[in-house]
Amino acid sequence: ASGNSSQTSCTQLMAYILKVMFNVTSVLLKASEDLLKQHYIDLKDRPFYPGLVKYMNSGPIVAMVWEGLNVVKTGRVMLGETNPADSKPGTIRGDFCIQVGRNIIHGSDSVESAQKEINLWFKPAELIDFKSCAHDWIYE
């Protein structure tokens, strides 16, 4: 989910993600505080937790599901390091983030976490199973 980015940044992020040839499902929403607290439950004892929830609740969020070969591993590389200062140019955080506390994108750290987060943010009817027209050119 990318939080509080301008429309231009959001459009640039989506273009960046789509060029890697993932199937992407997305929804623009205003997350409730309860949803954000559930999403970041593993950070609840950290000192920055209240500020993170407040920041993420301050504007619209684009929740996304990426699908593709090795999508979690590839996605983590595309995101860059959690601290934007440690992220390489060409990564989302390296190009779009300045401060770790205003990180504009979250990525699941495992397939299991991704499934849990997908179930939290999306209703089953919002997820469409499809094969892109380029699928057979990209995958064996």
From TrEMBL:
Molecular function as annotated in GO: ATP binding; nucleoside diphosphate kinase activity
GO biological process: CTP biosynthetic process; GTP biosynthetic process; UTP biosynthetic process
Cofactors demanded by this protein: Mg(2+)
Signal sequence interval, chain numbering: none
InterPro entries in the record: NDK-like_dom, NDK-like_dom_sf, Nucleoside_diP_kinase, Nucleoside_diP_kinase_AS
EC numbers, comma separated: 2.7.4.6
Catalytic activity: a 2'-deoxyribonucleoside 5'-diphosphate + ATP = a 2'-deoxyribonucleoside 5'-triphosphate + ADP
Nucleoside diphosphate kinase-like domain: residues covered: 8-129
SMART domains in UniProt: NDK
Protein name: Nucleoside diphosphate kinase
Family per record: Belongs to the NDK family.
